[in-house]
Amino acid sequence: MPKIDIYLHGQSNVENSDIKAYLDKKVLSLSNVEKFNKEKSNCQYYFLVDISASIPDSEFIKIKEELGKFSNQLGKAETWTLISFGNTGTVVFKEKKAFYNAKKVIEKLENNDANTVLFKTLMDVAGMVDRTKDQRVILVLITDGEDFSKGVATKEEAFKCLKKKNIPVYAQGIETEEKNNVQNLNSLGEFARKTGGAYEKFSSFGKLKKNLDRTTIVTFQNKNNVVSHKEEKLRVEIKKFGLNEEVIVIPENYQKSKQKLCIKSVTKKTENQLEIVFNQDVLYADKINSYDIQYKNKKGIAVKEAVYQKEKHRAILTLDEKIYSGIYNIQCINVKSNTMEQVRCPSYTVKLIGINPYLKYMVLFLSIISVCGIFGIILWMVIRRNHGIIVANRKIYSEKQLDYKNQHVFIYSEKEYKIRVTLSIYKEMIFLKDITVDLIQSIIVGRNQTSDIYFDDEYMSRQHFAIENRKGNLYLINLSESNGTKVNGIEIWKEQKLRPNDRVSAGEYVFIIKF
Q1: Which residues fall within 8 angstroms of residue 492, CB to CB, at 6 or more apart?
Q2: What does pLDDT average to over the chain?
């Protein structure tokens, strides 16, 4: 989860119950309150020193003296970088620790540049800062506020760069006799406060350091590590001190999510509803095409409706059929964690208690017996009314339908329809071979060696399906009661008319029917 550190200056007795924070109206969770410790807290200082000729010599000498002392005021976990700017911005030294002897380098600085590229240097420094590190960054700006970055950088551009990295500017104003000095310093103060920093007249870096050290660090966490990469309002309330401050921040960096996405549980809610509980907030759980549900690893079950309850991390799925007792495998093919990584959810296998699966076969069996009985009665009545039947040329005729001339029966054989059919056979998406037959009546495919085309496949029935030629039209007839036959991914129960290039699935094999 993302961590947000808020530094409160001068607030030394803040209690957990006193403080609340909101990021773009979302309540943040308070995780820690502690005093800043320069010996332990990682802090990086950036000093920007104006070396233009507009800085009075007396002030510049004092600036160099204060810089020479600053190294000894750093804690063990702190570093500082010195950058001068006048005609151009120059890195004097970078990321030096406490007690680094910088006096010789500082003494070489001279305030004789004709121009001041203040805002261009601020933009360059913002680019130097690595905000992926867990550290406090403080930018100390010593200047009279003049800028001559003509056509290169503006005040607003510099502000946007600093806000994107959430870098506060602590400005140390230099008073001069220049005509626009007061106006420049007022603008400088406004700029510093807008970044989340402060402004004061230059006097002592030691005083500034003590004020920055007298800080309370309040750490908040968001519910997930998603960052917006755009401006958001961060509001902090401290009831004890009557504080209600609001600043603009741009969340850019995030911590990697440590929690792995998974399904916590799957339960039967109603006769055709499943309840899936995830261990964290997820995306796309309300889409019906986000799930692939299989019963006993064979039959796919369609999802008619999906409802996601965000607060409980729970999805309610309404299935296209009732839930039977047995093993269900649930694959959340499009469900992802609501994090920056958007991790896919792994599959989940569960044993559910529902309707006895054999009941549906019992109902089907009784239905077939009933239909056969009714058909038998109708057939008997037809035979009786037509004085019997005669089978001729493999077709059934009633006696009334036959013509008798001179005691001879004339039966005309009907036209023979022959279709050349090619079965392209695949297993696990690998092409095996083509089988071509001239189909007049029918062929049977199955595991039994007496079938016209047989396969040694334990997932295939002895007689799995048949392809029948009916007056030039091909029909696929399902002969399997347990393993099932699919045409173009849809399971059929009786028969279906075939079209060229239909895809038939049986057992571990796939057949492309070409004719």
Answers
A1: 476, 478, 485, 486
A2: 86
CATH (residue range 263-352): 2.60.40.1220
CATH T-level assignment (fold) for domain 1-255: Rossmann fold (3.40.50)
CATH 2.60.40.1220 domain residues, the chain = 263-352
Question: For residues 247 and 168, is the Cβ–Cβ distance under 8 A?
Answer: no
* pTM score of the predicted model: 0.58
B/e letters for 224-239, b = 16+ CB within 10 Å, e = fewer, are: bbbbeeeebebebebe
Class at the top of the CATH hierarchy for domain 419-514: mainly beta
Q: Where exactly does CATH 3.40.50.410 map onto the chain?
A: 1-255
Can you tell me which residue has the tokens 């039959």? 299
Structural contact between residues 297 and 379, judged by C-beta atoms closer than 8 angstroms: no
Residue with tokens 């699966």: 357
Q: What is the pLDDT of residue 385?
A: 62
The CA distance from 305 to 316, in Å, is 8
Summarize the confidence of residues 449-462 as an average pLDDT.
86
CB 229 within 8 A of CB 249: no
Query: In the chain, what are the helix, strand and coil shares in percent, each to the nearest 5?
Result: 20, 40, 40
pLDDT digits (tens, 9 = 90+) for 324-343: 999 999 999 999 999 999 99
Torsion angle of C-alpha atoms 81, 82, 85, 89, degrees rounded to 10: -40
- At 243, the pLDDT band (50, 70, 90 cuts) reads confident
Q: CATH 2.60.200.20 in the chain: give the residue spans.
A: 419-514
